[in-house]
Amino acid sequence: MSRDEKPLPEPIERWLTVAVESDASDLHLIGGFPPTLRLNGILRDLPEPRLEELDAGSVATLPRVHGAEAPGKPLVAALDADWLHQVLETFCPVHFQQRLKDEKSLDFAFAWPCNGLSMRFRVNMFYSAGRLGACFRIIPAAIPDFDWAGFPSGLATRLTANRDGMVILTGPTGSGKSTTLAMLVNLINKAGGCRIISIEEPLEFEFPRVPNSVVSQREVGIDVPSFAEGLRNGLRQDPDVILVGEIRDHATAQIALSAAETGHLVFTTLHSRDAKGAITRYTDLFPNEAQRDIRSQLALCLRAIVAQRLLPDIQPGHKCHLALEVMWNTFPIASAIRNGKFESIDNYLMTGREDGMLSFDETVRQLFDSSKISRPVAERNVRDPAYLNR
Questions:
Q1: What are the pLDDT digits (tens) for 95-146?
Q2: Which one, of 328, 173, 329, lies nearest residue 246 by Cα?
């Protein structure tokens, strides 16, 4: 959803400027709490002088006790819930205000110039205790490169070399799936010769125009009513590559499978903990009586699943590290999917290094051995903590 062209409310402009200058990933605005940034995975209240510069009606007198604050540290004033509700109502796109009231939640994205750069922001607005709150995700001005993200360029080349089939990116919210998806599709875009269609909610990164490549970015709620309808219509637009921002229902899942089966390369995301979980998550979108057929389709057209997590650096506040699990759809994996023997997938991940398999245990241990993450973080992200000592 695109926001109307109108000035940002002054306090939001102020806080977003701080967020961009601080290289934060998110800005949280919730009544009863101060404006809060997420910096490299850690929540930080905005400095109090920023709030003191606002007029007296802009902040409440009640302080907030932050769990990470040291004893005796001054507390930051909290935002008044009623005042914030009014500011966010003004900020919400006019043509989506009724939808926000009806559904109690709204996603949209907008561009805004900051320090000479045209920045993009993804916004989720929601109700909490009857009043509006919002989370702003700061999107880089340009699609990042693989080195910046810590994503292996060789893996990216192999994933994008597929001419058809399905590639699934999975992981928890905030693990960088959308960024990885944009980097992969942009690699294809820059190579040229492809008709690319993306269906997203909302649009985040904008793909650059390059010679001999055509990209259509369609936004759910504005350009298409749903992911499923966008996919269905997209198949009539001569696509080579289709990006589906997220698969949430069986209709989208079914059409995506059909597209992958009929000669298109489909990139999409799911929310799951690991690669094996993505397979069960996909099949669980369908009724029990249809799951056997879906497993057969998935075994046929799946090319790879990449699961990812962002792990905090051993030094608090430093840039997070990308941990990956990579599953290629080899013959044993396809057989396990087709027969529903998902428990065997973990073994194939551990023993299939020659096929390009990579388990979370291995990548986490590499990060731990190179002193990039702490032992407690490593132990939380491996199946057996004893593996770190082998």
A1: 888 889 899 999 998 888 887 777 889 999 999 999 999 999 999 878 999 9
A2: 173
**Residue labelled with tokens 């094996």:** 276
Structural Rg of the chain based on CA atoms: 22
Q: Containing H/E element for 20?
A: helix 10-21
- CA dihedral (203, 206, 212, 218) in degrees, to 10, reads 10
C-alpha–C-alpha distance, residues 339 and 292, integer Å: 8
Specify which residues 324 forms β-bridges with. Answer: 308
Asked if 331 and 364 sit in the same domain, the reply is yes
3-state secondary structure of 348: helix
SS (H, E, C) 360-384: HHHHHHHHHHCCCCCHHHHHHCCCC
The pLDDT tens digits for 41-79 are: 889 998 644 444 444 344 333 333 333 344 445 556 789
Closest CA to 360 of 310, 321, 308, 312: 308
CATH of the domain at 98: 3.30.450.90
SS3 (DSSP) at 276: helix
Rounded Cα distance between 18 and 8, Å, is 14
Q: Which of 338, 363, 339, 335 is nearest to 348 (CA)?
A: 335
What DSSP string describes 52-116? HTS-GGGEEEEE---TTPPTTPPPPEEEPHHHHHHHHHHHS-GGGHHHHHHHSEEEEEEEEEETT
Residues 6+ positions from 64 with CB-CB distance below 8 Å: 32, 33, 34, 45, 75, 76, 77, 78
Residues listed for the chain: 390
Whole-prediction pTM = 0.84
Tell me which of 96, 114, 139 is where a domain ends: 139
CATH number at residue 301: 3.40.50.300
Please report the sign of the dihedral spanned by the C-alpha atoms of residue 21, residue 26, residue 29, residue 33: negative
CB 123 within 8 A of CB 136: yes
- Domain match, 54 and 197 both: no
Where is the domain boundary, 112, 139, 166? 139
**Which helix H or strand E contains 146, and what residues bound it?**
helix 146-149
Domain that holds residue 220: 146-389
> Is residue 1 in some structural domain?
no
